[in-house]
Predict the 3D structure of the following.
Amino acid sequence: MTDRKVNPEPADGKLLVLLQGLGAVSTTVIAGVDLWRRGLSKPVGSLVEMGTIRLGRRDNPEFRPIRDLVPLTPSDDIEFAAWYIIAANGYDSAKNAGVLTPEHLEAAGDALRKVEPMKGAHNPDTVRRLDATNALDTSLSKRAQADALRQNIKDAMAKAGATRAVSVMIMSTEVYQEPCEIHESLEAFESALDADHAAITPTQLYAYACLREGVPFANGTPNMALQTPAFQELAKETNMPIAGRDLKTGQTMMKTALGPAFKARMLGVEGWFSTNILGNRDGEVLDDPDAFKSKEKTKGGVLDSIFQPELYPDLYENYYHKVRINYYPPRGDEKEGWDNIDIFGWLGYKMQIKVDFLCRDSILAAPIVYDLALFMDLARRSKWRGTQEWLSFYFKEPMAAPGAYAQHDLFKQLEKLQNTLRYLGGEELINHLGLDYFGSDLYAD
Ligand SMILES: NC(=O)c1ccc[n+]([C@@H]2O[C@H](COP(=O)([O-])OP(=O)(O)OC[C@H]3O[C@@H](n4cnc5c(N)ncnc54)[C@H](O)[C@@H]3O)[C@@H](O)[C@H]2O)c1
């Protein structure tokens, strides 16, 4: 056993999961949780529910379910609430999203209908192409909107009888925005809030309202809300965990699994071309070039940190990386992510790899939202605040410790997550050295 410095509090009482957006991903999470907790499906894709962790040596291992290692909220104690700028409850929205089969939709109908949309903070200039029918009055000041969102949190928690809440942002992608002077400190941000500054977008209002209400905040979208000194300061001041950004689901998950394999074998890469066709509402919003720019940024940065071209110029200098997303309505949520990778090996001989991932976007994203909600709640009960780097595993562009580069390699991220859970569970960490298995046999006479 390690000398435990962190001792998570028990997960007593109900946990309210607050979602921004009640679209394809959100409704798939809500339906999925309802179906498997009633024994009608299995929580496939959820590390929290299906994962085990090795404790002890490989010659006498124990594989303990993650749920038995650390105190996580029982699935029966989870409730959902959502802000949504469209006047539709979870059922109508799920039906419109077209992810679930009619059988699943009906089976989870009651749980979906229970989620009535709270009025969302909306700005038609930052999320375009949507017809908002359930938004807060845009003539309200930003401060008044933040206050309304804070009141929503209080009301939703009271309605759910929740002792704690956690938020996972899963709304549409806003147009690309660089942080500016109002994001440089919490003071500057709060003054800007009072001055109704135009650079404050709805995602920032949500993050602000949640953190101020003591709600840990994970950002599943490419929106930049948390990646600023102002929000880092706010998380510190409110003692709240934060994590982001943009869920790592289909193509980027493949990229962060395959990229490290080429690098591990010192194979060179000349180019990596990634394209997608998808026809859901996410695709429609991303068809706006300014919104796509946000996505391009989170999808595009992944390979540089894996390949480290500055360290390996012979292998990766000037490799060409291109990412495209094409809105193609016939496919709905059933995205096709296609990659062509030009690699080279011994003596510079060229090879190609093609990946054609016929995936379902929301099916991949839903268990991640679920895991994040439970792990963020665990972080808060462990009295951790600020960036939760151990949750990098779930993000396309993970937030890292100050001054540190972000780790993108999927399996290194998993190792970190597992060791963090061992640590929180008061168990020995595993460093994979393993020399002790051989004892003195290892050493030549
Ligand atoms: N599905 C995936 O694999 C995946 C992976 C990574 C990130 N994401 C991101 O998750 C987000 C949601 O994806 P989705 O497929 O559910 O999209 P979706 O379009 O089905 O749902 C998002 C919903 O958010 C709503 N919305 C927009 N602005 C809002 C606001 N200000 N307040 C409240 N609601 C608002 C929209 O009405 C929309 O219906 C997107 O930003 C997407 O890029 C998805």
About this structure: The chain has two domains: 14-247+362-424, 251-358.
